Amino acid sequence: MGALRDSIDNIDAAVVHMLAERFKCTQRVGQLKADHALPPADPAREARQIARLRQLAESAKLDPAFAEKLLTFIIAEVIRHHETIARS
Ligand SMILES: C=C(O[C@@H]1C=C(C(=O)O)C=C[C@H]1O)C(=O)O
């Protein structure tokens, strides 16, 4: 079980690093949107991302509903960041 937990810890670390990189990109998008007076959220883009992620999840044998919940949770945080940038 120790080896499995080592792998779990490595995967958790990778997730954190990947999320940090994703948020760096989304912060830059948020600044561009604020510079061009664009709205923080883009529901059409989100719908495409969710459809794509659900398909990826299915082929990876991951529950698509879980994948959608996770992406929606992350995007909600990004939109909060964009709203903060727009107000600043
Ligand atoms: C990052 C963007 O802003 C928002 C956040 C998104 C995301 O985290 O992937 C996607 C769409 C937008 O609602 C974007 O428009 O690309």
Automatic annotation (TrEMBL):
Keyword Hydrolase: no
Record-listed E.C. numbers: 5.4.99.5
Residue span(s) of domain Chorismate mutase: 1-86
Gene3D superfamilies reported for this sequence: Chorismate mutase
Record's keyword annotation contains Isomerase: yes
Superkingdom per UniProt: Bacteria
Annotated keywords: Isomerase
MF terms (GO), sorted A to Z: chorismate mutase activity
Cited InterPro entries: Chorismate_II_sf, Chorismate_mutase-related, CM_bact, CM_dom_sf, CM_II_prokaryot
Pfam families: CM_2
Any Gene Ontology biological process: salicylic acid biosynthetic process
Protein name: Chorismate mutase
